Amino acid sequence: MARTAGTVLIVDDDAAVRSSLKFALEVEGLSVRLYDGPTALLADRDLPLCGCLVVDYRMPGLDGLQLVDTLRARNVTLPVILIAGRANKQLRRVAAKSGISYVLEKPLSDGALMESIRSALASYG
Amino acid sequence: MTVPTNMQKDPAALVTALEAAEARLRSIMQTVPDAMIIIDERGRIESLSTTAERLFGYSMDEVAGKNIKLLMPTPHREQHDNYLKRYLTTGERRIIGIGRVVVGQRKDGTTFPMHLTIGELRSANKHYFTGFIRDLTDQQVTESRLKELQSEVTHMSRFTALGEMASTLAHEINQPLTAIANYLKGCQRLLERIDGEPALVLHDAVSKAADQALRAGDIIRRLREFVARGEGERRVESLPKLIEDASTLALIGVKENGIAVSFRLDPAAALVLADRIQIQQVLVNLIRNAMETMIESGSRRELEIGTVANADETVEVRVSDTGAGLAPEVAAHLFQPFVTTKRKGMGLGLSICRTIVEAHGGRIWVDSRPSGGTIFRFTLRTAPIDEEPARAG
Ligand SMILES: Nc1ncnc2c1ncn2[C@@H]1O[C@H](COP(=O)(O)OP(=O)(O)OP(=O)(O)O)[C@@H](O)[C@H]1O
Ligand SMILES: [Mg+2]
Predict the structure, then answer these.
(1) Using alpha carbons only, what angle is made at residue B100 by residues B96 and B103, rounded to the nearest 5 degrees?
(2) Domains of chain A, CATH where assigned
(3) What is the mean pLDDT of residues B194-211?
(4) Is B269 in contact with B309 (CB distance < 8 Å)?
(5) B292 CA to middle of ligand 1, Å?
(6) CATH architecture, domain B32-137
């Protein structure tokens, strides 16, 4: 299967969710990097220029939104897909303010994540 | 009504003086702001102040000469004559000069709480009693309002605690379900690329398993929606009023614990967009925590509740205490459910606070006080000034 351009960076504190995503996305031909939390991601000084972030909203320490704000302050402009237990209007509003393109609800419905990732990566052509 | 002694010998002057005295009394009764009733020793109404007329709904003419028991409900109505007789024979004071809270009955049959003080008046050979009445309706309203508040908030907090447990459960179950669905999805894709009968059968079985994972997810989604019913309505609310109500509830019994409470409310932080009962729960939880830590530890017991209006259309509310500060083992997991250092604690208070505050679009966090103790802070959105209070937002 042809490799799609761009790396998917997954930030999730749940090990099973992390590696299952890696499996499912790699089967789809995507390259994947895993981070077990905001600290690990922020410590990575070699983030790809082309790719997208899949971030869990509720994590210990910084939450997903705070992580994205911190990244934006560092001029990291990668598109972000935020995955929340519950995505109410309020959260979507705040997420949009932080320049988050996609907010998905758990449990992920069939295909929703894949679609979001593909359209996030499509912006790189 | 004293009659000057030098007039007593002149009957005409006496009559004039009596008339004048009566006129004076009448004018007093018309103008005293208090409800006042004068009865004779047999309980017959001599006179009623204007305020008393208004309070009981009777005019002076309607009740003049009638028995005062008219103005009280059973069983006092039947007993009042005996009360009077007993006093006149024994001289034992049960209410005279003491004052008591009793119930009055209006002309329309409705009753109301009142404070009654009775004075005694003897002139010549006549014996009068004067009743001073203070209507307590408003004060009792305050008390029943408090009860109402209390039941609203405790009912809601039970509901919220249930919701918090359900959504914790939903979150915990969602994680493995998400992982299952991801693995199955990957397997399906791989199987699509393999030829042969067994691969087809496997693909079919795997997609059926994936359907079941999604079904379980649906059940969780429904559970969460059920819980979300408690999300409540946002209205424009007065923040000082919210704080006053919540602290009244939370501070019941505080005096006995020697906790000094102070408020520092920013006049600019007046109106917020909030679900009243939910924000009261947040405040009650924070205040209770603050009290609990100070009762445990403190020599100094000072609770302060403050507000500050921020520039960005939010207000910050803080609850600070002079307690022991956060235990290191909870500090890292604060605001997560089931985190507690208390023997009887459920560890739900702060996680409920976070759920509510975040649902309101705010943030909640904690600072420690340099001088010892803890400050919990949260933000709320202010309401635009032109919006009237209590309209759905
Ligand atoms: N003001 C405070 N000062 C010091 N520690 C606090 C304070 N507020 C909370 N804590 C700590 O955080 C823990 C969690 O608080 P939380 O309100 O969530 O649960 P709880 O008070 O233990 O139980 P519950 O509120 O469900 O009855 C407490 O057990 C306590 O250790
Ligand atoms: Mg508590």
Answers:
(1) 115
(2) 7-122 (3.40.50.2300)
(3) 92
(4) yes
(5) 8
(6) 2-Layer Sandwich (3.30)
